[in-house]
Write a structure and sequence with these properties.
heterodimer, A: Non-ribosomal Peptide Synthetase Peptidyl Carrier Protein, Chain A, 4 helices, B: Thiol Ester Dehydrase, Chain A, five-stranded antiparallel sheet
Chain lengths: 80, 138
Amino acid sequence: MDKNQILDAVQNIFRDNFDDDTLVITPATSAQDIEDWDSLEQINLLTAMEKKFGIKFKLEDVRNLNNVGDILELIARLSA
Amino acid sequence: MNHYTIDQIHTGMEECFTVTVTPEMMEQFYAITGDCSPIHMDAEYAAGRGYPGRVVYGMLSASLLSTLAGVYLPGEHCLLHQVDSKFTRPVFIGDTLTVVGTVTEVNETFREITIRGEILNQDGKKVVRATIKAGLAQ
């Protein structure tokens, strides 16, 4: 799965989680840009990504995620 | 009260308890919420809509899911994250409800468990189905 495919899949997870089919994310998108992206939604997003990509995050993986780009890089690394 | 930690919880683990709905519980729920819908307050009105008595507030039944998580599974270390509920059958005053929780997922990284919740009446019919996500304190 290349980076664009990962971004598409992650975008679908964001749309599903925030109930917004028009939501468009980029690597620069952060919690500052999405009002409902709080710590609880962060868990929901990341657990949905674990299921989608068949990966398992560790605490040290998710501690310093600042934006969508960081998440995409992490998924690419774990699913490589 | 139970005191399960994340390390002690596994998929398939189950807890349950039983509660009988009383008129006092209906009054107390009304006092808290102010929900004065006649379906809950007026037996004649409820009969006119085809029910044998006042319909118990769906959220009163669902509030037992708070007890399930906070007292039984996981108990003391719980912080409720999310509850999705479906009210599949009406509940009436005097019904005895059995609340059952089964762990379906354990995520140790996020210290969160997912519980399938079911509430059954005295006839064994499901009146509430729910998915509960609960965090566990360290």
